[in-house]
Amino acid sequence: ALTKLVESQLEDGIKFLVPCGTTGECPTLSKDEQIAVISRVVEIVNGRIPVVAGTGSNSTAKTVEMTLAAKKAGADAALVVCIKQPVGADYAAVMPCRWRPCMPKA
């Protein structure tokens, strides 16, 4: 089913894919399942378009681990989302997020 879905999107001219992004089943997948999905999408795409692996989590350690695993699996980039922004008094404790590329081009 995944192959058919990816191929259909490629045929329709999609510019990039985000396996395990923020609106799917990713939070319910194990680490191994998440990497398997990312790896399979990379394999199906075979360089035709960029694969941006969804690797964000509410755990910094898991996010780093998953981002490195996605890079090893061949993803071109990672989608890392910030945790829910606090409101009220907690807002002052949050420092601005800064993007630093974790997956530089080879």
SS element count, helices = 3
Written as H for each helix and E for each strand, in order along the chain, the element string is: HHEHE
Structural class, from helix and strand content?
mainly alpha
The biggest sheet, with number of strands, parallel, antiparallel or mixed sense and barrel status, is: 2 strands, parallel
Helix content class: 25-40%
The N- to C-terminal Cα distance equals 32 Å
Unreliable sequence segments: 90-104
Strand content: 5-15%
Number of strands: 2
Strand order of the largest sheet: 1-2
**pLDDT average, as an integer?**
82
Spatial shape? globular
| Rg computed from alpha carbons, rounded to a whole number of angstroms | 15 Å
Structure, explained:
It is a single chain. The protein is mainly α. Helix content is 37%, strand content 6%. It has helices at residues 2-11, 31-45, 60-73; strands at residues 52-54, 77-79. Helix 3 (60-73) links the parallel strand 1 (52-54) and strand 2. The chain is globular. Mean pLDDT is 82; it is low at 90-104.
